[in-house]
């Protein structure tokens, strides 16, 4: 897609993608710890976490009111809000932003729900292109065993029950996940995703990830004094260094 242009902000954006249970959150949490210990300013943003859509999503899910298109639009709203508040300001301020799932999650899930691929891609045209997008590739049996072990219940939308592909939630989940895998696989070349072997042990994957990320850290500002570092370590929406972000915004 040509629409997602390279951003020219001083910060860096690293994102992780893959099916449920592929190990994304594990790896990005370890990457975050490492970057902080190296003195970088790190922000974190998670899929579907914007307070703006929380109520609507939970209401719609509870009452099973969400069609694939409304579901898609809700996620795009969430993403737009987070792009504006949580992603662009720190990038402008020269920080590192890590995102657990990004636009490719929408592209994979919405297409798996039968939404038109081109339509979804156009919906997200405003997105910032990541510096690097990691795709955690894992055989379905492994990801399923990682997440289904010990779980008694799958949620309605999580299992793709809205698609009516199977009456048993576990079977429906597997079929839905397979569709998502197919979408991810076809996006590797389309978007230049960096494929990670997600079957490897956690430390080995992390070692590879850091090696791949390191070259992109060249020129990114690091904090020196321990006092400064303390202020920056615990960065949430509330502790965002507003002055710095505003300054970045004004320079644009
Ligand atoms: N390389 C690995 N080998 C074995 N188990 C792993 C590995 N990576 C993660 N796990 C385990 O698999 C489970 C799922 O991992 P994690 O939560 O990181 O996946 P995820 O991709 O973020 O899933 P979701 O999309 O559901 O949030 C966890 O219990 C985690 O400890
Ligand atoms: Mg996760």
From TrEMBL:
InterPro entries in alphabetical order = P-loop_NTPase, Thymidylate_kin-like_dom, Thymidylate_kinase
Q: Where does ATP bind?
A: 18-25
Q: Name one GO molecular function term.
A: dTMP kinase activity
Task: Kindly list the GO CC terms recorded for this protein.
Answer: cytoplasm
Question: Which keywords does this Swiss-Prot/TrEMBL entry list?
Answer: ATP-binding, Kinase, Nucleotide biosynthesis, Nucleotide-binding, Transferase
Q: Where is the Thymidylate kinase-like domain?
A: 16-158
> Kinase: is it a keyword of this entry?
yes
Similarity comment: family membership: Belongs to the thymidylate kinase family.
The free-text function statement in the UniProt record for this protein reads: Phosphorylation of dTMP to form dTDP in both de novo and salvage pathways of dTTP synthesis.
Its protein name is Thymidylate kinase
What organism is the protein native to?
Reticulibacter mediterranei
Q: What is the lineage of its organism?
A: Bacteria, Bacillati, Chloroflexota, Ktedonobacteria, Ktedonobacterales
């Amino acid at each position: 897609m040509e629409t997602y242009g390279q951003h020219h902000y001083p910060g860096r954006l690293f994102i992780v993608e893959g099916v449920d249970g592929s190990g994304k959150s594990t790896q990005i949490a370890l990457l975050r710890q490492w970057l902080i210990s190296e003195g970088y300013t790190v922000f974190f943003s998670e899929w579907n976490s914007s307070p703006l859509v929380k109520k609507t999503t939970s209401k719609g899910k509870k009452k099973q009111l969400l069609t694939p298109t409304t579901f898609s639009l809700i996620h795009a709203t969430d993403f737009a809000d987070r792009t504006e508040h949580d992603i662009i300001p720190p990038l402008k301020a020269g920080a590192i932003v890590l995102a657990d799932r990004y636009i490719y999650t929408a592209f994979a899930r919405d297409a798996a729900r039968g939404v038109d691929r081109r339509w979804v891609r156009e919906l997200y045209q405003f997105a910032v292109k990541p510096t690097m997008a990691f795709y955690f590739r894992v055989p379905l049996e492994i990801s399923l065993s990682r997440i289904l072990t010990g779980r008694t219940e799958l949620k309605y939308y999580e299992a793709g029950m809205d698609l009516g592909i199977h009456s048993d939630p576990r079977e429906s989940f597997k079929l839905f996940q397979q569709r998502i895998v197919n979408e991810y696989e076809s996006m590797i070349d389309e978007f230049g995703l960096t494929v990670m072997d997600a079957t490897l042990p956690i430390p080995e994957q992390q070692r590879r990830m850091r090696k791949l990320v390191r070259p992109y850290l060249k020129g990114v500002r690091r904090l020196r004094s321990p006092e400064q570092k303390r202020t920056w370590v615990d960065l949430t929406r509330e502790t965002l260094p507003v002055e710095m972000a505003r300054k970045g915004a004004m320079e644009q």
